[in-house]
Design a protein that fits this description.
Elements: H1 3-15, E1 20-28, E2 36-40, E3 45-54, E4 59-64, E5 67-68, E6 84-87, E7 96-103, E8 108-110, E9 114-119
Parallel strand pairs: 2-9
Antiparallel strand pairs: 1-3, 3-6, 4-5, 4-7, 7-8, 7-9
Organism: Petrolisthes manimaculis
Protein name: Ig-like domain-containing protein
InterPro entries: Ig-like_dom, Ig-like_dom_sf, Ig-like_fold, Ig_sub, Ig_sub2
Length: 121
Amino acid sequence: MDKKERKEEKENEKEKGVSVVPVARLGVDGAAGGDNVTVREGATITLTCRLTANPSVYNLTFYHNGRPMVLEGTAGGGQGVRRSLVLNNVTEVNRGLYTCLASNQVGDGQSNALNINIECE
């Protein structure tokens, strides 16, 4: 089964009311797809966790190098869950692996690992 067929199957299950664990895909807005992204030091990047789930996701946590990140601000993104993480003025501290973990009443779904490299000026 290819990627398109899996997507169609998930959409069909959702339409039928079938409960599914969240499927999460983490990416950098404006960057080509892939799990390795290099950005210039000082840049601002937005990491977005794209979700498919039924029932809706009630909690989403971003991780940096395996540690949960404490986020400030209000929830957003439709279902009361923040789906994007903005990193301003990135430095070497921001280098590493990022993931997101989405939870619904069925279970938890972890995203791909996204490796962020910082190119020093």
